Amino acid sequence: MGGPVRRPITTLPGRIGCAALAVAASVVPHPAAAAAVAEFYKDRTLSLVVGHETGTGFDTYARVLARHLSRHVPGTPSIVVQNMVGASGIAAANWLYNAAPKDGTVVASFAQTAVYEPVFGNNVAKFDPAQYTWIGNADEGVGTCGVAKASGVQSLDDLRKRETIFGATGTTGPLATYAYAVKNLLGGKIRVVAGYKGSASVRLAIQRGEVEGVCGVSLSTIKSQWRDDLDSGAFKLVLQLSGAPQPEFKGAPHVDAFAKSDEERQLFDLIFGAQALGRLYVSPPAMPAERRDALRAAFTATMRDAQFLADAAKLQIDVAPMTGEQVERFIRRVASSPPATVERAKQAIRN
Asked: Is residue 349 part of a domain?
C-alpha cells in the first residue's frame, strides 16, 4: 500500500487543467449573493445521497467529501450521507430529478452509466441528464476488468477461449454493461450473473467462488478496497477500460488498443469513456443559481483542501477532479453523439 493518490490532471475531453481548477476555486460571488447563500445554509442540513450500497467506492468517496465540504459552503451546513440503493444508481437519479428538493439542500452521487441510460433509450430512466445541476467530479475513473486467480484466466486471450462468470448489480448497471461490451465488442466469453448490491458484494462473491470476475470497477476502488486481493494475486486485472493507460498494470492492455477504426474509437469512447466521470456529484435541475455556484465553488475548493487530500491519502482513493461546468460540457457532448454510434453502443451494452 502507498504512493501518491493525486494523479496528474489529463487532457481528456472535458478535463480541466490545474490552473483552471485554481481559477474556478477563486471566483468570488457578489457580496450580497454570498450573504444570502450563507444565511440560507446556516443551521441547515445538506443531504449527500449515494445511489449505491455502503462499502462501495461511491460510498467511500462521498463520506470523505462529507467530512470536509461543509467548511467551504457559506453558512457551514451540517452534511449527512444517505444511501439509496436501486437499479444501479437509476433509482437515486430518478428521485433526484423528480422528487428531491430543488433548493440546494441535496447533492447526489451515482454511477456514470446511470446518467447515460436516457441516451441509450432506457425508459426506466426518467430524467434528462443535460438538465441536472452538475456540481463536480472527484475522480477521473480508470475502469477495469479483472478475474479471480482460481478462474485460470490470465489475459483477454484466455477470456476469449473459455466462458467466465462475471458478477454484476442490475443488468443495466456499470458492472453488467461493461462486461457485455467486452463480450460483444472484444469477444470475451462472459456470462453475467446480476443481482448483487454493489461492487463490495461482488468482491465477496468472487472470494466465495460464486463468480469469477468483474468489469467496471474503478481502479481507485481496486487499489483501495481490493488491495489485499490484488497484492496476493487472488485477483488480477486483465483489461483497462478508460482513462490514460496505467503503466503499473501494463499486463492489462487498454481497450483503445483494440479499436480498428475511427468509428470504433468513437464507439469505445462513448461506452467506456463514460467512466472518466468516475465520482460525480449532482443536484436537481432548476436550483437557484447562486446556490449552484456556491456548491460548485465549495466542491472545487474541497478538491484542493489539504485536510481532504490527507484524508483521501489515508484511504488510498484517487483525486483527479473536474468542475461542475466541465462535467456539464462533457454530458452535453455525450448527449449529442451521432445516432448511428449511439445505436451501436446500445446493442453492445446489452446481453
From this structure: no
